[in-house]
Amino acid sequence: MEVMNKATARVHGAVDQVANVAAPAAKWLEEQGDTLTVGGGKMLDNTVKYIAAHPLQSLALALAAGYLLSRLTR
What we know:
This protein is mainly α. The chain has one domain (about 1-70). The protein has helices spanning about 1-55, 55-70. Helix 1 runs antiparallel to helix 2. The protein is elongated and about 65 Å long. The two termini are about 45 Å apart.
């Protein structure tokens, strides 16, 4: 029973540490959420415009990225 109590205390300590580290990041994301959403929308618009202007180059880039990703995940 003592071993179980020690293990439980360690797990609770680890969870508390993770929560303490994650709290500032969560607060920052909450504060910056709108800015990140707008930035993501702008990036998406720019990507759509680039693909429309350069369809073959975009296809080649997508194929190269897919190939590299498949090689990295082996």
